[in-house]
Amino acid sequence: PSGEIHNGGRIRFGPDGMLYVTTGEADDRSRAQDRDDLGGKILRVTSAGKPAPGNPIEGSPVYSWGFRDPQGLAWDEKGQLYVSEFGHHNLDELNRVEPGGNFGWPEVEGTGGESEFTDPIATWKPADASPSGMTYHDGRIWVAALRGERLYRIATDGSSAEQLLTGQYGRLRLVTEAPDGSLWVLTNGRTGPDYDLILRVTP
Asked: Which of 13, 65, 78, 192 has its CA 20 to 30 A from that of 28?
């Protein structure tokens, strides 16, 4: 599904060779908890677009659910998946994703402590984050922040979050590994000739 807002849209091949897709709930909260609906989900499909073998629901592309607007995908060296997500008014999230996990939206925003839902490993106020694209590099998770206009470097347990480039280049849309071991950071401004830059950052 698609809408004027909450469309997710990140696609990346995982270390298992399958394609992972983030989808938002397209401003219809009920989609996120409906496992028969593809909105508010992480989808896992083959390169031909078919439901991947081993998914939690046989014959379905749905890998995990209960998301509002998931934006970024990254895997550590063990193949563990992490996802960044836009929250509503209170808290944005960084989640460690397991197959079949329910991440709570719209019942929970941020940490709820309820056994049926998976809590995030890190949260931020939306003004400090609006986390978008992300990558795993040099033993840390790196998250580009739009509204927060900064780059986060975070341990895989969600601790020791460092803030880099804060307010220097405006909205940051994506961070990804470059072939030479550095990072590429893409800015995403609103208007003007000095926006939409590719920055090279050395860890």
From this structure: 13
